[in-house]
Amino acid sequence: xxxxxxxYNGFKAAQQEPRLLGTVENKLGLDKWLAxxxxxxxxxxxxxGPDSDFQKHITDAEVLITTxxxxxxxxxxxxxxxxxxxxxxxxxxxSDHVDLNAAVEHKIQVLxxxxxxxxxxAEHVVMSILNLVRNFxxxxxxxxxxxxxxxxxxxxxxxxxxxxxxxxxxxRIGYRVLQRLAPFDCKELLYYDYAPLPANAVSNLKxxxxxxxxxxxxxxxxxxxxxxLHEGTRGLVNEELLSKxxxxxxxxxxxxxxxxxxxAVKKALESxxxxxxxxxxxxVQPAPKSHPWRTMKNPLGGGNGMTPHYSGTTLDAxxxxxxxxxxxxxNYLDGKPQEPQNVIVGMGKYETKAYGQR
Length: 358
Ligand code: NAI
Hints:
The record marks 256, 309 as: Important for catalytic activity. Homodimer. Belongs to the D-isomer specific 2-hydroxyacid dehydrogenase family. FDH subfamily. The protein is 35% helix and 16% strand. By secondary structure, the protein is an alpha/beta fold. It has 2 domains: 2-116 and 314-345, NAD(P)-binding Rossmann-like Domain (Rossmann fold), CATH 3.40.50.720; 118-306, NAD(P)-binding Rossmann-like Domain (Rossmann fold, 3-Layer(aba) Sandwich), CATH 3.40.50. The model has no long low-confidence stretch (mean pLDDT 97). The structure holds 1,4-dihydronicotinamide adenine dinucleotide. 1,4-dihydronicotinamide adenine dinucleotide is lined by residues 92-94, 117-118, 121, 168-174, 192-195, 226-229, 232-233, 254-256, 280-281, 309, 311-312, 354, 356.
């Protein structure tokens, strides 16, 4: 059996740090184990275009492992050519790089390691909110430049205390973000999600659900996006929705880049409609050098908290998603049932309710 894994190159870092498991070099720790069971493992970072290793090897692979940090985009066309493909495993959380509707039709199962990096992302979200609200990045850059002008930073620095913070999507990550924000004494914590939080979660955090999205964004000083990318969320945060935000709000998106319209976000930041935008996910990954989100700024020259996609790939997270990937693969090889929370698409149908209302 051929297992194809599309991972990112770790180069020198991966040789020096074996805990960088999600790299081409360290192969999620699967190589010896798969070889001992008589299976072939092909690992590559080459993923785009007809001559890529991804498109070459997908034609006879039975298992595809790929990661949201360096996604091999499994489109319907490529699926048509993948005659042996039975199961796609996402080493991490978020399987939008697979055309899930096509996977349902092709009876290809899609699983992810649910929960493996949700704390890692929630911590990154809280860090990003604080970075933006407190105007941290321009303050640090000023110090590196050798300058010292407190008023240039303080004129756009605020406390998180007393602000309204809301999450679009209140699943594993969204809920953990709200939990972590509770001690900051925000004015209110809000959520927008078609799935209501359980009553005890609501009363523990004193969080309020807002069912209308326009209303929700108009009440928030900070919006954080924590829902999957699917046909109902692609481009959800567009020019029209951004115009409904509170003027000068902050927006943090660590969910998926394509949930936000790239040009509309840039314009909103440059006009001051947004005071800041932060996140680690991009509509194309790796993001081209010319991507507007790399350098966009608010009218005061700050408000950009972008990083490469790493919030969910801390070394702690890599240990969890590598071992979760192995468990999924082991269940598959041994014909054992999978953990239900990991199954996005089962045999010919969606098993999750998180990828849109159907
Ligand atoms: P989850 O499945 O626990 O929660 C997702 C929530 O979003 C669910 O409650 C669902 O009902 C809600 N939702 C779906 N569509 C919605 C819509 N149209 N409007 C409002 N809410 C909607 O997923 P989890 O673990 O919280 O992860 C969420 C997403 O975060 C992943 O799908 C992935 O895209 C992203 N992620 C990013 C990482 C990173 O490294 N930046 C790492 C892990 C996840």
